[in-house]
Design brief:
single chain, 477 residues, alpha+beta, four-stranded antiparallel sheet
């Protein structure tokens, strides 16, 4: 007996235990049309292979083909087999037209918790393009806030001049053949942006840019003064401030001219946590000049990262690579406001979480604790007002189904296991001990329900980096 999921027939939620295995269960209604070519099974867990596959969904059809049963056979010989399918998610998921997994998965979650078919636009169903518009407005706000902070830090008369800085840094990178919108291995990291900022400053002060107006010239002059003071301090052997130092609050920093003056300081100079002189004080010592350069670089790099994120979001093939969990949850709030509804997002499962309603994963969790965590996940998944959004390696996607079974223990020494339906169904049966297998149905690449992922592997990912989590989106009222 075999089964497949169908977008055409999603009225059945299957939760089957081995105790009911003797009953006649027909799952043929789940048959589906074949989807566009997917990753071969042998490549499914290969990160290198996945990088070569475009991160999007292909074709006009929303059909998906995925076996509900391990090995395409109903595992009657197992001690336990259960599966839960979220049909609202199967009706609500939307295709990912580009590397914009965060936008597509958010749209699918909103359709799911509202019980809307993806094509029910008249009643408010959303797609990736709708979410991208909200994200763009979100980055507009973030960029304006970053620019305002940098302007206060540098004592600029007009915040708009920072658009010129973005343009010049872009020109520097274009000349290198590695534009701001470079992706994957070529994507610009903070050290690359710091180097580009210094190169742009040197080129601007040498008159290398055309069309530099007065306010932009003041910007480059200020940056050149900061870089020159830090260079002189380093040449004099001044100790650099600790890398643990943070950007000083702009309102607590002295005006730019005072911050870079060359007085030796005095009794009124503020002491920072490292025992040195605060970079924002007039009369900052040599170490303070280095700290000031670091603070300015941090603020500028942060602003440039938002700018780059927006450039990628506005590209012909929009990318949401900039968006992490905090940005996703912020987008959920803004999309809710835009639609006039209340959908609340939260970090639900992962490392370092607190609260009774969250699942905090720890490498030392006992098997009993892991069982409890899985039960909580399956219970949350089954809520009709909630959708689970998973952040795995370089990808966001909903959870469409969960399944589990208990594999039989190996025989005692000298015994044998004959060919059986259970052994045939479980291609990856473990030998030596009874084991619970837990899997979630998701997708990678794209959003089309296509891959059963081992929960054990996903759990290891989440334990490896606190950024990988399961988010829960719940509609209120």
């Amino acid at each position: 007996m075999s089964a497949s999921l169908s977008q055409e027939s999603t009225e059945v939620v299957c939760a089957v235990a081995a105790a009911a295995a003797a009953a006649v269960v027909s799952l043929d209604a789940y048959k589906l049309a074949q989807p566009p070519p997917a990753l071969p099974p042998a490549q499914a867990s290969s990160p290198a292979a996945e990088e070569e596959v475009p991160d999007r969904d292909f074709g006009d059809s929303f059909d998906a083909s995925i076996s509900l049963l391990p090995g395409d056979k109903f595992p009657t010989a197992l001690d336990l087999f259960s599966i839960s399918v979220r049909n609202a998610a199967l009706r609500g998921w939307v295709k990912q037209p580009a590397p914009c997994c965060a936008a597509s998965s958010i749209a699918g979650c909103f359709n799911t918790v509202r019980g809307l078919d993806r094509q029910d636009r008249d009643n408010g169903a959303v797609d990736a393009a709708d979410v991208i518009k909200v994200m763009d407005g979100q980055l507009d706000e973030d960029r304006a806030a970053k620019h305002a902070s940098v302007a206060r830090l540098l004592g600029l008369r007009d915040v708009e001049v920072l658009s010129a800085l973005e343009k010049r840094v872009g020109e520097i990178q274009d000349a290198k053949g590695r534009p701001l919108t470079s992706r994957k291995k070529l994507a610009l990291k903070p050290p690359d942006l710091r180097a580009a900022l210094r190169e742009a400053t040197d080129k601007a002060t040498a008159g290398g840019f055309e069309g530099v107006e007065e306010l932009e010239a003041e910007l480059w002059k200020a940056l050149d003064a900061i870089y020159s003071a830090a260079d002189a301090a380093k040449a004099a052997g001044a100790p650099a401030a600790s890398d643990a130092s943070v950007i000083l609050v702009a309102e607590d920093r002295a005006p730019l001219g005072a911050a870079i003056c060359t007085n030796a300081g005095g009794a009124d100079a503020d002491e920072d946590d490292e025992g040195g002189t605060s970079a924002g004080a007039c009369g900052a010592d040599a170490g303070g000049a280095i700290a000031l350069q670091r603070d300015v670089n941090k603020a500028l790099v942060s602003a440039l990262q938002v700018h780059i994120g927006q450039l990628k979001l506005r590209a012909e093939n929009p990318s949401t690579a900039f968006f992490g969990n905090g940005d996703v949850l912020k987008c959920v709030r803004k999309l809710s406001e835009h639609l006039g509804i209340q959908v609340v997002g939260r970090n639900y499962c992962g490392k370092g979480l607190k609260g009774a309603k969250s699942i905090n994963l720890d490498a030392n969790d006992s098997l009993e604790k892991q069982e409890e965590q899985w039960r909580s996940l399956v219970s949350e998944f089954a809520r009709s007002d909630t959708a689970l959004l998973m952040h795995m390696t370089n990808h966001y996607c909903m959870i469409y189904a969960t399944r589990e079974w208990a594999e039989p223990a190996a025989p005692e020494a000298g015994g044998t296991i004959g060919t059986s339906e259970a052994n045939g169904a479980l291609a990856e049966a473990r030998v030596g001990t009874s084991k619970r297998v837990r899997q979630v149905l998701s997708a990678k690449p794209g959003q089309r329900p296509s891959r059963w992922l081992e929960w054990e592997d996903l759990r290891k990912q989440m334990l490896g980096w606190a950024g990988y989590k399961v988010l829960a989106l719940k509609i209120e009222g």
